[in-house]
Every structure is written in structure tokens, then in C-alpha cells.
Amino acid sequence: MLLNIHRCLPFAAVVLIFALGGHLLAQTELEGLGRVGEVEKIQGGFQFVEGPAKTPDGSIYFTDIPAESIMRLSTDGKIDVFLRPSLHANGLMYGGEGRLLACQMDGQLAAIDLESKEVTVLTKEFEETRFNACNDLVIDRAGGIYFTDPRFRAPDPWPQGKEAFYYRDPKGVVTRLGDDLQAPNGIALSPDEKTLYVIPSMQAEMMAYPVVSPGKLGPGRLLCRLQQKGSRTDGGGDGLAVDSRGNLYITSATGVQVVSPEGNALGTIEVPEQPANCAFGGPELKTLFITARTGLYRCSMPVAGHVHCTK
Question: Mind listing the pLDDT tens digit for each residue in 123-143?
Fold first, then answer.
């Protein structure tokens, strides 16, 4: 089978083709990082998968939003339902203390006990009004949670009246950090937690914000403009992962676009279906798990991922 991997020009993402047993295998050489392995489908047949997250036992949890399900890929390769109904859970992240944090698009941020499956609502309102449809999140070392609240699956009119991203501090106080982006979606911290990245879905410009202190940001800067598919000019990103060197892996219509902390394009990993999100896991954190429409995929990576830790 020929696996097509997108070449990110004018940057030096070199596509290498090898003949192996009569089959062609295409691999991407990410600039300054190394070669990416073949993208492999783990399982298909889902409705729309999102939000992969690794837990300490090596499992990968992910969501099937229309099916209202949180799924679990165990280390033995078995996939089963972890929680249903999930209130249309989207982004996930391990939150420490045996909890899986979830953005539930029905308007709240929740923590799920991995043993009992008990769900605890962490926040569901800002200024006494429900959120639109919480989408993605990242937890910092202080135990605070940055999360996005765009328009997708929100009631009409939007309960908040605008799309925004927020910070919930360890005491439960929620602060709105920004409301000037078109559909803020993916969100992540740099490994040193000095930079917050926000990935809008309806604009090409990806943003980076200096973290002055937990939950307090300086003025944003343009990180990069995503490469576009076809004639589009406003195609944005969806989810993202960060590796141990601080590079970003942003899912988009063209695939997983890999961007350096300085905003330089390092290459694009093409996936058979348009990817929605990704996360590092596996041995040595060198496997990238990709949720892409109806399928869960993976590929080996030359650089280890970064997994945020709580205090």
C-alpha cells in the first residue's frame, strides 16, 4: 500500500520512498528531527473520534463525540468503552490522582475517577452562565486548567455570546483569558510552561502567549500561519500535541503539521482521514496516536513526546 505523506515546502521535509517486498512505503523526514514511521490504522468504524490522552498505566483514552463515548485503548491493544454517556466529551487529559479530565461539549469541565468512573463537575458556568461547548484543555503543574470554549455543538445563540479560552485555578475560580480568536480549539503548554499555545479552527493564524504566572498571560504573538488545503485561506487547526523539544504537532486539513517553537514548519504527516487531535504515548513516549474522523491511528516518532504533569 502506498502511504502518501505530505511534503511541506519550502521547508526541508524530505519524502523517502522505499520498495519493501513489492510494496511502497513512504516516510517523512521532519526537518531537524528525523524520520516518521508509517501511519497505521489501529481501528476504524467510529463516528467522530477526538481527544486522545495517555494515562500512567500506558492506556490511551479517546472520545467518540456523536456516540457519547469515552474509549480506552489498553496496552494489550484492546479497545473498549470506558464511559457512556459522556455528555459529548471531547478533549481529555490525565489530571493526576487517578482522574481523567474531560471537556464535555454539553457545557462543562469534569473529572472522572479512573477506577469508580464517578464524574465530578469542576466548572460549568462563567459569570453565572453555562459555557458554550467546552472543547480542549491542558493542566499546569500548579493544578490549574486552561481550556477552550468555542462554538462547535453550542446552543444557538451561544450561551456566552462569544468564543473564548479560560483558566480554572486550583481553587475553582475561572478567569476568561481571551475572546478575540475565531473558534479557539486546541490548547497546550510548552514543556517549561512559559508559553500557552491556542489553536483556532477558523483562522490560519496560530497564537502563542507568554505565561506570566499560572492563569495570567502577556500579549499574544503570531506563532505561525498554517499551510492551507486547496484555495482556502482561513483553514485553522484542531488539536495538538507537544514533544520534549517543544515542537508542536497541529492537526489540520492537510494532516499533522509539525511546527518548531519559533514557528518554523518542519513537515506534515499525512493521515488517511483528516485528523482531529493527537497525543504521545507508547514506549518512551515515541508513538503519536492520532484521532482522525472514523479511525484511530498511530505512527512511531523520532522524538519523544512531552506529557504534562500535575503537582
Answer: 999 999 999 999 999 999 999
For the chain, helix, strand, coil in percent to 5 are 0, 50, 50
Could you tell me how far CA 220 lies from the centroid of its own chain? Answer: 20
Q: Where are the domains of the chain?
A: 14-300
- Taking residue 232's Cβ as centre, other Cβ atoms within 10 Å add up to 12
DSSP state letters, 188-215: EE-TTSSEEEEEESSSSEEEEEEEEETT
**Residue 310 pLDDT level (bands cut at 50, 70, 90):** low
Beta strands in 124-276 (DSSP E): 125-126, 129-130, 137-139, 145-149, 164-168, 174-178, 184-189, 195-200, 205-213, 216-217, 221-225, 240-242, 248-252, 255-259, 265-269
What digits encode the pLDDT tens for the residues 166-194? 999 999 999 999 999 999 999 999 999 99
For domain 14-300, the question of CATH label 3.90.226.10 is answered with no
Instruction: Say which amino acid occupies 160.
Output: Q
